[in-house]
Design a protein that fits this description.
It holds the Pfam family ABC_tran. The structure is a single chain. This protein has a domain at about 30-55 and about 80-90 and about 150-244: Rossmann fold (3-Layer(aba) Sandwich). A hairpin with a 2-residue loop joins strand 9 (about 205-210) and strand 10. The chain is an alpha/beta fold. The strands form 2 sheets. The protein has a 6-stranded mixed beta sheet, with helices on both faces. A 4-stranded antiparallel beta sheet has the order 2-1-4-5. The protein contains 9 helices and 10 strands. The longest helix is centred in the last third of the chain and has 16 residues, at about 170-185. Helix 5 (about 140-150) runs parallel beside helix 6 and helix 8 crosses helix 9 (about 230-244).
């Protein structure tokens, strides 16, 4: 595996009995890259992500994330990544401040660090007036922004985002992507799954999974050029038809 790649995957496979959920995939992600991991529901992208974040062991193949082997050093992988799940990942019955404190503790931050991070996060998101409100009172878009910021509390090298903008309005989606760009500019690697094909345009490179295999991997510009189309949605449709 190349040392320059912060995520390196070789022939990664996951089977459940006779069913092959992830079929011999290989790719690399560079430091600071925004890497889109696309595919229809059931394509295998969530299963692949679970292997990369250290919560599911590969059936075969190998992968390293932030320099650690996902099969044998999964705890070190978890310490060096941030993760935001498709379903909202904070606690509705805790306040904003309590959520930040709780997750800061899980990430191993000291009380002083948690206090400093809380002040900075609340200022950046302009949440000073609602810091002691329950998270359940926040609009979905604000919940997602807060969850993203909390996943970055421990300054991970990589953040994995699983369908982070599902169900939010277009303006909030754009604001969320501005946060992603800002974080990537600081050197954080972003690994994001999405089913919004227009969001694929925001990524440096994208891979498209179909039935457990990576069927295309390149920059959005190059993929549109290769398939002779004007949008990533057309790339996806054309690729699906070609495979059929």
């Amino acid at each position: 595996m190349e040392q320059s790649a912060i995520i390196s995957v070789r022939n990664l496979t996951k089977t459940f009995g006779d069913f092959i959920a992830v079929n011999n995939i290989s790719f690399e992600v560079a430091k600071g890259e925004i890497f889109g991991f696309l595919g229809a529901n059931g394509a295998g992208k969530t299963t692949a992500m679970k292997m990369l974040i250290g919560i599911s062991k590969p059936s075969s193949g190998q992968a390293s994330v932030a320099g650690f082997d996902v099969s044998h050093e999964s705890e070190m992988v978890k310490k060096n990544i941030g993760y935001m799940s498709q379903k909202f990942s904070l606690y509705d019955d805790l306040t904003i401040k309590e959520n930040i404190t709780f997750f800061g503790g899980i990430y191993g931050l000291s009380r002083k660090q948690i206090k400093e991070k809380t002040a900075l996060l609340v200022q950046e998101l302009e949440l000073e007036e609602v810091i002691n409100q329950l998270v359940s009172a926040l609009p979905l878009g604000w919940k997602q922004k807060l969850a993203f910021s909390v996943a970055l509390l421990h300054e991970p090298k990589i953040i994995f985002l699983d369908e982070p903008t599902g169900g939010v309005d277009p303006i909030t989606r754009r604001q969320f992507w501005e946060m992603i760009y800002a974080q990537a500019h600081k050197g954080t690697t972003i690994f994001v799954t999405t089913h919004y094909m227009d969001e694929a345009e925001y990524c440096d490179r994208v891979s498209i999974m179909v039935e457990g295999k990576i069927e295309a991997l390149d920059s959005p510009k190059n993929l549109k050029k290769h398939f002779k189309v004007d949008s990533m949605n057309e790339v996806f449709l054309k690729l699906a038809r070609n495979i059929e």
